[in-house]
Structures are given as C-alpha cells and as structure tokens.
Specification:
The protein is about 45% helix and about 15% strand. The protein has about 280 residues and is of the alpha/beta class. The protein is globular, with a radius of gyration of 19 Å.
C-alpha cells in the first residue's frame, strides 16, 4: 500500500474519532506507550485536542521503563494522563496463569479504566489493537468487546507496518520501537506468576537490551530462561555476546539454566503449545 492510501486510512481514523467525540464528552485512550497506542493517542490529540486524555496502567507485569516513556510522552505534548496502579495479585485468577489469563486481565484492567474515564467525563474508551492482532490467540479481545471498549485502528483497517510508517511521518518516537507485550506473556500457561519471577524476566530482558538487542524475549519455564532474538540477530548473539557473563547475570537473577531458542523471536510463542493440542 502506498503512502497516500495510508494517509487516507488515517483521515478515516480521525473522522471516526471525531464521530465518537461528537457524542459528547472526552475520549479516553488506554495508553501503554507502545507503537499502536501512541499513534492512536497522537492522532486523537491532533483531531480532538483537549477532548482526549490518556489512562495508563502501572503494574508489576509492566516494565518500569515503559511507564516512564508513556508519562514522558504525555508530559512533553501536554496531554492529560491518569495512571491507575494494579498489582497482579489484584486480578482474580491471574497468578494461576490459565489459558484465559489475558481475558481475566483485560476484563479487570479495562473495567477500572472505564470507571476512571467515566469519572472524568469520558464518552468512551478506545484501545490500540490493530488488524494484525486478529492473527494470534487473544482472549483479551473478548473482554474488550464485552465492556464496549472501542478499537479505532481496526475500524480504520490499519496494520502494524502502516502504523509505523504513519508514525514516522508524524515524527513519533515509537515509529521503530520494538513490539512489546506484558511480562506475563513470558510464562508458560499453568506456571504460577509471581512478583519475583516477573522481576526476573524484566531484569533479564533489560540486560539483553544493554547488550544492544532491541527486540528480545526471555521466556520463563520454571528456572529456565529461553531467550528469543530475531533470526537476523542470531549470528551476532553467537559471535559477539560473551556467554559466561550473560549466564552469570541471569543466574544472579534466579535462573538456573539459560538457553537460546533456535527458532528465534516470534510473537505468541507460548501459544504454540495450545496450537499443538488442537
């Protein structure tokens, strides 16, 4: 798709956002600071100005750097932002990590976001799922639909690559930001999620970022760390990373075994076990 067609999609998105706002009240954006929600928030702010505000979740399953980046973006652009703090322990059934964990989480988080939005005069809540999100197991989308949360990027038929291109054109700092998912997605289903293990994963990934890897996952299987890097980064991982310091660092965090996944990074790799059972 060429740039003009992408711009047309963005224009349709802005018309859609305007129609929502014309219902009366402000539009609340569930804002994580990732590629999609940043583009959605920035576009809504272009169209609605102070008629839009952001709501950001702060939790033990969200890396602290993500919260800081989200807060910095809103502060720099003068966008009103409200932060809701939620512990993983506050979400019923979440720590047991069932296959519908994402549903339980989204139901709780977006219920709180919706209540906050209504308290500040919000006419609706919008979130940043795009068309590519139809391609993976995402039970959280069921909760979003049940609560009446809007997904304007899907309504505008926007895909991730298009959002990145338009973000670049807008000068957004997230245009080439790696994809991100909550830290709970690093756990195999059925393995109990604890604050200790969430912090282990966060610190392990941060260490790998410090080595120069921008897209990385550390999947946790008990005390085994399964590292995923994109296939194009595999050679540099083998040739440039000093293995002993890496192993020692992750063992300090609480891991016993450290492995590299030969298939490389891919979204939703923990869902592969579900697919194999089908």
């Amino acid at each position: 798709m060429d740039l003009n067609e992408m711009r047309e999609k963005k224009d349709n998105l802005k018309k859609h956002l305007r129609e929502i706002a014309d219902m009366g009240g402000s539009l609340a954006i569930a804002f994580s600071g990732g590629v999609d929600s940043t583009f959605l928030l920035a576009t809504a702010y272009e169209e609605l100005g102070d008629g839009v505000f952001a709501i950001t979740v702060k939790s033990d399953f969200v890396p602290g750097r993500e919260i800081l980046e989200a807060e910095g973006f809103c502060r720099e652009r003068g966008i009103a932002q409200y932060v809701v703090e939620v512990s993983s322990k506050d979400i019923k059934g979440f720590c047991e990590n069932p296959v519908n964990r994402c549903y339980l989480c989204k139901k709780e988080l977006f219920s709180r976001i919706k209540n906050i939005s209504q308290g500040y005069g919000g006419v609706a809540v919008a979130e940043g799922s795009n068309m590519d999100d139809h391609n993976d197991y995402r039970p959280g989308m069921t909760a979003i639909r049940e609560l009446g949360i809007l997904s304007p990027l899907q309504a505008a038929n926007l895909y991730k690559d298009e959002i990145r291109t338009l973000s670049y054109e807008m000068g957004l700092p997230t245009a080439d930001k790696p994809s991100y998912a909550c830290l709970a997605s690093r756990f195999v289903y059925g393995e109990r999620i604890t604050e200790e293990k969430l912090l282990m994963v966060e610190k392990a990934e941060y260490y790998l970022y410090s080595l120069g890897f921008r897209q990385v996952r550390v999947r946790i299987h008990g005390r085994l760390a399964r590292i995923e890097v994109p296939p194009q980064d595999s050679r540099s991982f083998y040739e440039e990373v000093s293995k002993q310091p890496l192993v020692e660092e992750l063992k300090k965090l609480g891991f016993i075994y450290v492995t590299l996944d030969l298939q490389g990074y891919r979204t939703g790799s923990m869902n592969e076990a579900l697919n194999s059972q089908g």
